[in-house]
Specification:
alpha/beta; seven-stranded parallel β-sheet
């Protein structure tokens, strides 16, 4: 096994497409068996048939019962995953007052509540063993307000803040908590969040390849990084954003969304 991937087993949510699928492929390719979690059984079973070394766990993380089933798998003392990747999530684009509040509730449930529950389960299992890795997928949107994508950005800011806090809490126990903050990536996110026009509005250099993002995330958590921002442009932008006044961030973000 590659020394860059010290974990011997993994669980990945949102594994049926996008970053989660790319991570699953990379992990299995490195000899790491994966518990693949997602809503779509057909896609998970196709992935397992293609790759082998994939355990299918069908779960809709909007559902409390399904959250508990995934929690039980994470805390399975006989076969615990050493790496837990909380990748499942989605966004909703549009004017906040015009959006469906039930969809926003589901978005918060998946992006925040389920991620928190699964992260808690992972740490309760890993800390006593003094071994384990958690990789939570946030977004570059976590660094600034995002008018017309307000709830998504807010949930991702939560994920980033939680991850940085837990990174410091868990490190003394030998457990790594990392947060991945990718920028624009061509996945199903655009169609699900109604942001398909982004592909025409934003220039090619801003788009990251999904496999590159997956690789950066796995390398980063294996190296024990607290925060992983793939792409030179986004790492530079993060440095700028961190010293930019919040009022200016709001204005720039609003102007970008209206462009």
């Amino acid at each position: 096994m590659s020394p860059a991937l010290p974990f011997r087993s993994a669980l990945v949510t949102g594994a049926s497409s996008g970053i989660g699928e790319a991570m699953t492929r990379r992990l299995v390719g490195a000899g790491v068996p994966v518990v693949a979690v997602a809503r779509r059984r057909d896609r998970l079973e196709a992935l397992a048939a293609e790759l082998g070394e994939v355990e299918v766990l069908v779960a809709d993380l909007r559902d409390r019962g399904d959250q508990e089933r995934v929690t039980a798998r994470i805390t399975d003392a006989a076969h615990p995953p050493e790496l837990v990747v909380n990748n499942a999530g989605f966004g909703t684009s549009g004017a906040f007052a015009e959006l469906d509040p039930d969809r926003l509730h589901d978005e918060i449930t998946v992006n925040v509540t389920a991620l928190t529950r699964l992260t808690h389960a992972a740490l309760t299992a890993m800390v006593p063993r003094r071994r384990g890795w958690v990789l939570n997928v946030s977004s570059f949107a976590a660094y600034q307000p995002a008018p017309r994508l307000a709830v998504y950005a807010a949930t991702k800011a939560y994920v980033l803040s939680l991850g940085e806090s837990l990174h410091e809490e868990a490190r003394s126990a030998g457990v790594v908590v990392s947060t991945l903050c990718p920028g624009l990536v061509r996945t199903e996110f655009q169609s699900v969040s109604n942001t398909g026009d982004y592909q025409e509005r934003f220039p090619a250099p801003l788009w990251l390849a999904v496999d590159d993002v997956a690789a950066a995330g796995l390398r980063g958590v294996a190296a024990g990084k607290a925060v992983i921002v793939p792409g030179v442009l986004y790492r530079g932008a993060t440095s700028i954003v961190n010293v930019t006044p919040r009022w200016l961030r709001r204005l720039v973000s609003a102007r970008v969304q209206r462009a």
